[in-house]
Design brief:
By secondary structure, this protein is α/β, with parallel strands linked by helices. The chain has helices at residues 54-57, 61-76, 84-94, 99-117, 121-124, 144-156, 172-185, 202-214, 229-237, 252-260, 277-290, 303-313, 327-330, 361-367, 370-373, and strands at 4-21, 26-39, 44-49, 132-134, 136-139, 162-166, 192-195, 220-221, 243-245, 266-269, 294-296, 342-343, 346-348. The strands form 4 sheets. Strands 8-9-10-11 form a 4-stranded parallel sheet, with helices on one face. A hairpin with a 4-residue loop joins strand 1 (4-21) and strand 2. Helix 2 (61-76) crosses helix 3 (84-94). The protein starts with a strand and ends with a helix. The mean pLDDT is 95. The structure holds magnesium ion (MG). Magnesium ion binds at residues 195, 197, 221-222, 246, 268.
Amino acid sequence: MSTIKSLFTEILDIPIKRPHQFSTVQVSSKSFVLLRLELSNGIIGIGEGTTPGIWWNGESVETMKLVIDHYAAPLLLEEDPTYVEKVLQILERHIRGNAFAKATIEMALFDALGKTYGVPVHQLLGGLYQDKIPVRWALASGTPEGDIEEGKNSVLSGHYQKFKTKSGKEAPEDDARRSIRIADGLRSHSTIGIDPNGSWDRLTTMKWMDAFFDAGIDFLEQPLPPQDIDGAALLSSMKKVPIMADESLASPQDGLRLAKEKAADIFSLKIHKSGGMKNTVKIAGIAEAAGIPCFGGTSLESSIGTAACLHTYGSIPNLDYGCELFGPDWLADDPVMEPLSIKEGFIQVPDRPGLGIELDEEKVSKYIRKIEKEK
Ligand SMILES: [Mg+2]
């Protein structure tokens, strides 16, 4: 068998279709680390690292690039790529944290192995449960009127059928009121989940719980700060609106704790926050054993990272809440030859070897961060 020959990273900055309002920032472009992991057999695996922003968990594309180039790459050269678990353990032993960087490496490794064996990555993860997954779109236009119109147009045109609202920009009280207004405005067309990215407090959330229930809210995603596990358990015990864990759930150990403390009704899975596809499958297994359904979360990937998520989520039987893999639709451009697309509210799991994605080198050159070009 071949060995790992080299790891090469670049940063890409790709514009998005419209400004996107998160709890703390508004963004108009998205940054990615593109990793090319070459094996001694000549095959190159592609990995993509991206995060909603450094505010999300402390990692950024710049930290990922640094960790991969200066710390991970020297550890992995000459290693046998078929020993995936050994490679991951080497990274785990030598580099604390940095899950997003580790997930990027694992993604490239699986892509290279899939291409070597001639099988899609989902076969390496144990095989599919489903080959297409319903996608929920995040309404984040910045105004309730804009969000209601966007949601209605989407449903009527047969595109996305379910939605999420991003919250946390305003005071929790105003946020709750605004989300209910959007839910009411969309009532005859669809339903929404609410994602305040941990910016609410216990009392406000409890006070509004009946109103959320009446408005038919599908779930509250990480309403409280990630450390407040007791608070999440309290909200979950109210049995009004399902509480989804996102920022509070990264490692399999987090999953075990949330399940034991009954602090989540739904797990939001994300391959980057969990350090890769294998860990994500492990977390879904813990959820399955605990009777907790999962949601396929996104770090807003291009078609490269989205493909990795799809191979993973497609292999998970308890993905009852579908996914939010709308990254390729949200970006104004995609650095691959055939971007993934959402059709009638569903996204298809790729079926070609590896991730099933081919880079568009012209687009890659176009979006490489200038400072990297000058090196
Ligand atoms: Mg979230």
